[in-house]
Amino acid sequence: MHHSENQPIKDRSELFVEQSPSAIAMFDREVRYLAASQQWLKDYNLEGLDIIGKSHYDIFDNISQEWKDIHQECLKGAIKKKQEDSFIGNDGTTQWISWDIRPWYTEKNEIGGILMYTADITPIKKKEHLLSRYQELLDKTNEVASIGTWEVDLKKKTVTWSKVTRDIHEAAEGFTPNINDGINFYKEGENREIIYKHFQACIEEKKTFDLELEIITAKGNHKWIRTVGIPEIENNQVVSVYGVFQDIDEKTKANKLLALQEEQFRQTFEFAANGMALVGLQGQWLQVNKSLSQIIGYSKNELEKLTFADITHPADLEKDYKLLDQLTNGKIDSYQMEKRYFHKKGHIIWVLLSVSMVKNSMGLPSHYVAQINNITERKQAQFQLQESISKLQGIQDASTQVSIIETDINGVIKSFNRGAENLLGYSATEMIDKQTPEIIHLASEIKERSKELSKSYNTDIQGVQTLVYQASVGLYETREWTYIRKNGSTFPVQLTVTAIKNSNNEVKGYLGVATDISNLKRVEEEVKSLLDVTQEQNERLLNFAHIVSHNLRSHSGNLSMLTELMKMEVPEATQNPFFPLLTEASENLKETIQHLNEVVAMSTKTNDNLLSLNLLEYIKKAQTNLHASILESETQIEINVSSSIFVKAIPAYLESIFLNLISNAVKYRSSERPNRITIDAIVKKQFVVIKFTDNGMGMNMKLHGRKLFGMYKTFHGNEDARGIGLFITKNQIEAMNGKIEVESELDKGTTFKVYLKL
């Protein structure tokens, strides 16, 4: 009820409330709004609402009975206040306030209603709560080495992982898990059951958990982790669970593995079927197992007084030391080799040695671990197999027309194959263990070969040793011999003799493989006969050329003399238009005869006339002889030839070749550019290659290449060209066992390559 007598006080109070900068509201005795400050309306999201005259309980229908009781107490004169308190707002969020509620009085000093003063301290409380939460999280993180964090917001049903936590799970960078995802990362079975149980207890019973469990990452890797979970509580309810996540996989596995490895190594070392040892950096035996003692015959105490080098075969030490040095210097992680040990009783033991290195805590070499496997029986079987294969392979590969005869070290026949029977007419029974190969050889050939070998090796070599001596000193010998058949007839063979060795690389016998070369020799004779016929025909042709050259030279001389006499005795005859033609024909005939003489001269034997000539001297000599034409044509010549190079040649030929090639390069120069000739020489195997390169007119090789070196072939329309120079040059080079090659491009230039013997 409103009372008019109270109106002045009420009006003033309402005005005060409305203008107050604080959150304050004035209510009547029915807790209906009389006035409210702007801050009150803002703090409680009431701006724009008409609340005057309306019940506070209608506007906030979720006000608890506890608050209503406080209001009633204040309407009876009590003053209530609290520095911190919370309530659920209309939007469902928790609000924190400090409040003061007291009655207001009318002019008659009667209670007219209550005044409520509040201050919204929600932001402060949130900061305090966040600070407390961070501090708690920081403490826990410091406790477990500051690693990943995680949070499950139960209100929003979201899961948040830090980058480190996501990396531990090996999840993709943008991966956002849900609650089930997080649980399902734990290994199915005991690990998943444990995390589920503790997570539920954290939510329902507000219990913190700290667990070490195994997860399976997004990439399928098994990993040990430590997870700590802390409940966040609001209004006595867990609203989120947050915590830390640590990767302890390496430490956990290392501890488990170390314990396992130590036990396994002890068991393996002591009871291994193979020999095992710890060896010091100086090669001393630090510790050995029972199996190693059994393999090499030394007791543990005896071995600990020795080094591995003391019982190693000298031929294997260098390789062992080399590998050990590489291991010590970190070039290799381990090595394995077959080697030989001396048994205590003196015989050889073959072993397969495997060595690795152990480092100390400083990363420096501490000692070696050696595993020794006895492979003696295997090696013996291997040597026997190799010997058998070597022997059988030779026999198997031979046809029945190839003679294969095996002897022992003394030359006694031990194997006589079907091919030998077919070729020689003897049976294997007649030869094996009864004869030596001397029976099938001409005594004269053995005697002659015996003299040669005895002289070469400065020792007396006789009889069957003549046939096998080269093989006995590690050489293969293949040569022609004459075999004698059982019926006394002979035939030529090509015989190869090799040594047969045992597992110790010692010669235990010889294998002779012979092929009948009768047909080959027959063909050889036929070829020789053909060569003789060819030689005779060449000589006849040469004689014919000499006769033709001589007779033509006589007729040419007579013809030249007649033309000269006509000039002197019958001058008017020279006016006849045919006279110049006669003179020209006479000169051409003379030139042709000269060319023929040169060709004939090249057909004679030249090998006996070859001399060792200085290449550079003859090049410079040709340059000097052509000095006038070189100067007139303004040709530049560059010579890149060592003065130490000599060639086998005929002086006149060599001079002619160089004169011809250089003069051609001058004669067929290009009018478009300065003429340049480069002469180079290199040694190539048994030849000296002389290159003459010019930048002249060049040639179309596709068009003229095949006839370039033909007689009377010209290609540039030069009226002075006769087409004989390159023909003679080629024949001169070939007469000295050389050859000539050419590369050319039209309007670019030409390169001639002359190959002459060193």
TrEMBL record:
Highest taxon, organism lineage: Bacteria
PANTHER family listed in its UniProt record: PAC DOMAIN-CONTAINING PROTEIN, PHYTOCHROME-LIKE PROTEIN CPH1
Which GO molecular function terms does the record list? protein histidine kinase activity
UniProt source species: Roseivirga ehrenbergii (strain DSM 102268 / JCM 13514 / KCTC 12282 / NCIMB 14502 / KMM 6017)
Give the matching Pfam families.
HATPase_c, PAS_3, PAS_4, PAS_9
Give its E.C. classification number: 2.7.13.3
Q: Which UniProt keywords apply?
A: Kinase, Phosphoprotein, Transferase
Q: What is this protein called?
A: histidine kinase
Q: Domain named Histidine kinase: which ranges? A: 547-758
Q: Show the catalytic activity.
A: ATP + protein L-histidine = ADP + protein N-phospho-L-histidine
Outline the extent of the PAS domain.
Answer: 261-331, 388-441
TM annotation in the entry: none
- Positions of the PAC domain: 81-133, 335-387, 477-529
Query: Is Kinase among this UniProt entry's keywords?
Result: yes
